[in-house]
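Encode chain A's predicted structure.
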Amino acid sequence: MIDNCRSLGHETKLAQSPAMEHSECKGDVAAIEIAVPRGAVLALSLAAFASGISLRVTDAMLPRLAEEFSLSLGNAAAVITVFSIAYGLSQLFFGPMGDRFGKYVVIAWGCAACAITAASCALAPTFGLLLAARAMAGATAASIIPLSMAWIGDVIPYARRQPVLARFLIGQILGLSAGVLVGGFAAEHLSWRVPFIGIAGLFLVVSIILLSVNRRLPLPARAARKEQGSAFARMRSEFAQVLRVRWSRVVLLTVFSEGAFLYGSFAFIVSHLHQVHAIPLSAAGAVVMLFGFGGLLFAIGATGLVRRLGESGLTRWGGILVTASFLTIALSPQWWWSIPACFTAGLGFYMLHNTLQINATQMAPERRGAAVAAFASCFFLGQSVGVGINGLLIPTIGTTGIMLLGAAGVLILSLNFSRLRAARSREAAPLTHA
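Encoded structure for chain A:
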């Protein structure tokens, strides 16, 4: 019997779709689709857009921040590290909170808090206070994308979930691209503080929209689970149930490694293009923005790609594309090779990461908020580890060495997960006819 169907002590059979290589527990709360307003997922995508900008806006600012505050590039990268650490650790709080009070309303108020923390970044007078503000921004942003994924998992059956998640992530994809572009433009032509003012205003508007949509949701789509006991005891119990499942541990370790190797290198692409090829920060940010367009291509073609490649194929080829792209960025003699490379890296990343996400939504269906929160926590803690270590390695191996290290790591983890996912599908197949 497959582990995730035992996460709550139930012995249930799995039904596998040959096209999608997935298994679904009969106990999944989304076995029957819940009717929700048409704009509900779109509103979450807008929140993901704002979150994506907030996440990546400082990537292209690193050389400017290093110059303004008289820091090394590695030390300036702390603005990325503290955001990721706070984001990852806060999942341990927001996942159970979403299960307890209702995911959609927690996301809405989380966006309101993000507006405050983004404004704090704009007003920070010293680098130390900027780090504190970025940590708070990471902590509040933790309420958005993982809980959105968990909510979609609650209302969309597994068979339809991956394409819906892909469409939802269009907002995040565009936000990540816009964040790098806006950050680079502001660093080159404006003040680095300007983007944070815009981000604060955007979060405020999105919060108002989400609260309006929440009032129109049917009761099952905004339901909260009432339980006895202290909040700490419930949190410990929920995460313990997730971690007891062997497949959950595989997914969590894989996404931690993905964050460390992939985003640990990705965060320095703008700096690499600026330092090695001497192109302006705004131009380098525009090149890296193509990463998001590669992800957009995946979101548009997700249904066909899932049907053709399956989950194991998506992770295998996604990792290969990212590896080839990072090698091109690191070793190409001309900067313009990075244009197709960044686009291809985005396509490969979302092939890999979206498959990990769909597995995360099914690790523990009745504790989906905690499961997806654990997933996001591992991803962002992996990013913080990767960026932190690479910041220390820059004086020794340079940004080129960091790109090569990321390429090797992504290839290994993607091929390993593809192998394990294929084996899991073979194990589940006999149960389909049991």
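Residues 368-432 form the longest helix (65 residues).
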